[in-house]
What does this fold into?
Amino acid sequence: MAADPDILIRPYRADDAAAVTEAAHESVPEVQPWMPWCHPALTVDDSRAWLLLQVTAFERGEAYEFAIVSAAGRLIGGCGINQIDRENRRANIGYWVRTSATRRGAATAALGLVRDFAFGRTNLVRLELVIACDNAASLRVAEKAGAWREGVLRRRLLLHGVHHDATILSIVRV
It folds into this structure.
């Protein structure tokens, strides 16, 4: 998968709060079913509080959350590495893209950039993607980015009080 030169990732900053909130509000119908943090009542203060946690986690190597930005600097989503299991050298990877930037390869490009960061800057050997089976768009992104579909985890995700089956995919260092 070739990198898209128009898509960049960079560590989140506290001053991304307004842009994250705007992107989330634009994307509630598409993102909220899969990511409950994305809701109409999300405030800039909520985003800032989360971002401050992410900045600290990044500095400590506890998680690596990134803003997905266009070459012009517009925030178009987020992606990251979290739930790091140092003993087994694996982590979770996730992503989202604002509605106005979907279906153009941004998520696929960002996923490739996060993979390259993980395998180039950490000793992780396995990245896991746990995606609700009904989230067809996210599953397409993962597979386009080279993730290997491993199976279905029954009732793995609790979203809005309802358990969902999830597909587990992986990207491994070779």
